[in-house]
Please model this.
Amino acid sequence: MKALLRNSVFVMSGLAVAACSTDPPQALKPTEMPSAFTAPMTKSSQVWPTADWWTGFGSAELTDLEVTAQQQNNDLAAAVARVVQARGNTGLAASALFPAVDLEGTAQRNGSKVPFTTTGGGGSHTTGSGPTTISGTHGVAVNTFGVSLNASYELDFWGLAQDNLRAAQYNARSALYAQRVEALTVTSDVANTYLDVLALRDRIQIAKNNVDAAKRILAITQAKVTNGVASNLDLAQQSAILAGVEASIPALEEQEREARYALAVLIGRAPEGFDVKANTISGVSAPVVQPDMPASLLVRRPDIAAAEANLVSAHASVDAARAAFLPAIGLTGSGGFTNPAIGSLFNPESLAWSVGASLLQTIFDGGAKTSQLDVNKGREMELVADYRGTVFNALSDTESALGQVTSLATQEQFTTEQVKNAAEAFRISELQYREGVADLLAVLQTQQTLFTAQDTLVQVKLARLQADVSLYRALGGGWTIDQDKDQPTRNDFNPLPIPL
Model:
């Protein structure tokens, strides 16, 4: 038995040499990657986003929300659970590389009835009777005790088990990268939704300020109508303006509530009773980032890493499907002791052992193995296309985000200037209307221009900040593949919590 186990160790040590794995296909040629981004951006040194990029917005409340989301978000918890499952499957695949060893103990007692015949010399001399014969049965019981060690092992001579293990390992790695993608999605959604809440509160306040201004103009108009200086037409026009502005507020308040509810769900809690302390987006700023070569995205985007891991896993499955055509070689061995007396069970005379080998080659399976190979090849072709699409989408995301950051920053500058001039124009028109120099139409026009410009400026600020969030996300959110290259892929420890 010791020799059998020792030989098994040598066999397993030689499996890596016997494996017949091949390299996965090249999904992307180096010439297909652009040498530089073409979107307009500021000229500065390369600065990639950090893993805690949200701290650069200058909002302690946002930082607290991001930390809470990483700990309590349900979608992220589900992604972590999928990593655990994938690592468990890796452990199952790895088990095929080792022999199965069972220890069995038995204890039996068997009984039977045995017939017997007994002849006696009884009888008296006076009667002259002869010998007495007695027939019957009596019980016989036999005890049997045994202990045995049984081992079986299928040689991975063609690398089938190793290919399956490699497929499971890269599938687990893909699940880990997918969890990083989910984490990046959650943190981006938290930032965007938080900014939505603040921007909507700003827009509500602007609308309320506009209501106050409209009420001032209405009071002036009412006084002029009373004094016969203005007509009821002016009064009706201003009343309509006031009602229109007031009507916009409930819709904005509802949007703000829904944004808060969504933010509560993102941080893993019920929306009831949840609130945000900040009331304005004005004090929020975004850190500057500046990517370098587009090829860097290949090691900074977890979705690209996941697509690559899926492709390698699929290719390993193709190798496994090829290896399944070759003969399966199995080894078996058993040894143990059997004795009717438990005290003498481990005597050398009670030892029994056996070893064996088997060779199994499929002759006809109705095309099952061929069809499985076709399925795996088709899956590999699909994932080649998926990988290419993921890379090109990543380039597109980055280009779009870079362009949006630049264009929205310029738009914000012009809109800020527009608000400044519109506020001055409204102040002058209101003063002139009060003094009777300007008519109501001029006041209404400048009021509407100011309200629209202020509301637009908030939306432009929101869009610019969210474009920054999109850029951080497009650049991988500070993640690099080196952070996870040493992550285990086998479930041989408690994998929770998985760091973000």
